[in-house]
């Protein structure tokens, strides 16, 4: 039960990686500060405006009602538009792949493949989907610049224009030097939180389209996510 719930929280967070370049701007306490929110968003869009990137990640998912925190780590490959491959290494191997249309989740230890449609899980910026198309943020979120406790980071609060159970708000912590999204924090309607720390970004590297294709293993148990 916990594993299934964590997977739902994860998908809600991952969608964010498909949206960064589209945002509905609002004023905040730091609206008069320099740089402005618009300047920060321009910097993020420029940083993620290329073909794609590779990075490592560490994830913490907390179920508020159960007071349980689960951790995981691995690497991610993102290619515009809409393509993502999340390779989980710890605590157990699993792979989440989307080509922008379809979604596959492969659990090798169970020889199990979960299949679904990417827009259902990653549409409108859900689940870190914005990273594969940063410009989506402007169309799907109300964004404010908040005070950051870290002098090296900008802190952005994103509230979806259409709130869902899976995604009530998102916080992005952005490097002031590089405009990398170093922390992505997603909170759902129940107060469950998923925090992803991104490290070792590699931009402008070759990304093979074959990474986003799936060959379902022989004899695999296939489950429809929807």
Level of helix content?
10-25%
Rg? 17 Å
- Structural class call reads mainly beta
Number of helices: 4
Characterize the biggest β-sheet: 13 strands, mixed
CATH topology: outer membrane lipoprotein receptor (LolB), chain A
The CATH homology group name: Lipoprotein localisation LolA/LolB/LppX
The CATH class designation is Mainly Beta
**Topology as a string of helices (H) and strands (E):** HEEHEEEEEEHEHEEEEEE
Which architecture would the CATH scheme give at its second level?
Clam
Number of strands: 15
Features:
single chain; 226 residues; mainly beta; outer membrane lipoprotein receptor (LolB), chain A; globular
General description of the model:
There is one protein chain. The protein has a single domain (2-224), classed as Clam (outer membrane lipoprotein receptor (LolB), chain A). The protein has helices at 2-14, 37-47, 118-122, 137-140, and strands spanning 15-18, 24-25, 52-63, 68-79, 83-90, 94-98, 102-107, 112-117, 127-131, 141-146, 153-160, 169-175, 181-187, 193-203, 221-224. It has a 13-stranded mixed β-sheet. It is mainly β. The radius of gyration is 17 Å and the shape is globular.
Summarize the structure.
With about 230 residues, the chain is mainly beta. Helix content is about 15%, strand content about 45%.
